[in-house]
Each structure stands twice: as C-alpha cells, then as structure tokens.
Amino acid sequence: EAQVTQNPRYLITVTGKKLTVTCSQNMNHEYMSWYRQDPGLGLRQIYYSMNVEVTDKGDVPEGYKVSRKEKRNFPLILESPSPNQTSLYFCASSASGTFYSYEQYFGPGTRLTVT
Amino acid sequence: GQQVMQIPQYQHVQEGEDFTTYCNSSTTLSNIQWYKQRPGGHPVFLIQLVKSGEVKKQKRLTFQFGEAKKNSSLHITATQTTDVGTYFCAGDNYGQNFVFGPGTRLSVLP
Fold it and tell me: Which residues does B64 contact at the CB level (< 8 Å), separation at least 6?
C-alpha cells in the first residue's frame, strides 16, 4: 500500500529537549516536505526536498532542521524546541516534474506539545 | 513572498445547498492543487489544475483555474454530509515550494 508514515503520532516534551520526528514514504517519490498546521493559518511549509541531499527552506524554517540522506526518509529535527512550536506536523511526498509537482501524499500527522 | 488567500473562512450550509470557496494568489502560479481535510484527518488530494482557464469536474465538484493563473474556485453542487471538512488550495511555485491557503471550513446541516 502506498503510504507516508510518521512517528511518533503524539509527543509531549519540554522546552529545550531535542527531538526528531521521522517520515518515510514507499512510493519512490523525489519530493518530500514538512508542514505545520495551526488554527486559522492553514498549512505552512517548513522545509522541502527536491531529492536526496537537496533541501530548501519553506516559509517557516526557523527552529527546525531536516536531512535527506535516503530517498525514502525525511526526518524533522527540533534541536531546542520551544512552546511556539506546539503544533500539528505533516510530512508529505510527491513525484516531481520539471515545471510543477504532482499530487502530494500526506502522512497521518504528528501532534507535538512543548511545555 | 507569495501569499494565498481563501474566502470564506467558514461556511455553514443546509444539506442540498451549493457551496463555493475562492482562492487568490498574490503571484502567478504554475499550477494549483485542491485538498480536503476531514476533521481529525490529514489533507487528501482532490485535483490539480495546470492550464489557464481550465475547468475540471469530479461528480458534484467543479474546479476552475483563472485566466491569469492567480485565482481558482471550488464549487460543490447539492452538498451532502460527507462533504464536511476543510478545503485547501495550494499554489505551486514551479515545482518547488508550495503555499497553502488558510482553508475554508464547510459544515453541512442535515
């Protein structure tokens, strides 16, 4: 079954404690992306990756890191989480074209609370 | 930077009524995508529009892409309770970053 998986699904942590949210896709997609969703703000892109070893900032990259060492995995790292990073996080993947991308497949989401 | 707006923010309709949400971008888009997110779920792809002036239909849903490729709309005819959710448009910046609109939350009263 084609899918995007994220772990953990729920996480409560304290300010400053480093954490990683994993994302994996089994569709051999080149493009992967991380979004955060906050009430009234919709989905905001944090980072995206066009392919292995190629990453770029989205609209809200501050406080986050990513890496793309393998095509299937795209972890999101919060080295020193703060309460304003409390949010619902989605990973997504898609095939990529020359001038536009294709449909994005979203993972189930990770609800993060930073106290 | 690029901004994508959607109106209305909320829409409450009686089952059987029509519904329309509008999406406007501050810049020209290479294409636009529409997603639906059910309460507690993740966004699910509905459709992608690429050509200027394009119109696509999926059963009761009609999608349009403006001539200038800066605006789009989603129209649902005769809403059903299964249409409940939040509808997002997403502008594609030529295969690179995506910018989502804030979404329109639709509730359907039976």
Answer: B49, B53, B54, B55, B72, B73, B75
Q: Which helix (H) or strand (E) element contains residue B48?
A: strand B44-49
Pairing between β-strand B4-7 and β-strand A110-114 as defined by DSSP bridges: unpaired
The band of A40, judged by pLDDT with boundaries at 50, 70 and 90, is confident
Chain B contact present for A42, CB below 8 A: yes
For residue A39, pLDDT beyond 70: yes
Structure tokens at A96: 């990529």
Say if the Cβ atoms of A45 and B97 lie within 8 Å.
yes
How distant is the Cα of A15 from the closest Cα of chain B, in angstroms?
26
Q: In whole angstroms, how far apart are CA A105 and each of A76, B10, B35, B67? A: 17, 25, 10, 28
pLDDT at A97 over 70: no
Q: Taking a contact as any Cβ pair under 8 Å apart, which residues of chain B between 49 and 78 contact chain A?
A: 50
Q: Does residue A99 sit at the B interface (CB-CB below 8 Å)? A: yes
List Cβ neighbours of B45 (8 Å cut-off, separation of 6 or more). A103, A104, A105, B33, B34, B35
Cα–Cα distance measured from residue A58 to residue A9, given in angstroms and rounded to the nearest whole number: 23
Q: How many CB atoms lie within 10 A of CB A82?
A: 11
pLDDT on residue B15: 97
- Residues of chain B contacting residue A93, judged by C-beta atoms under 8 Å apart: none
In whole angstroms, what is the distance from residue A6 CA to residue A92 CA? 10
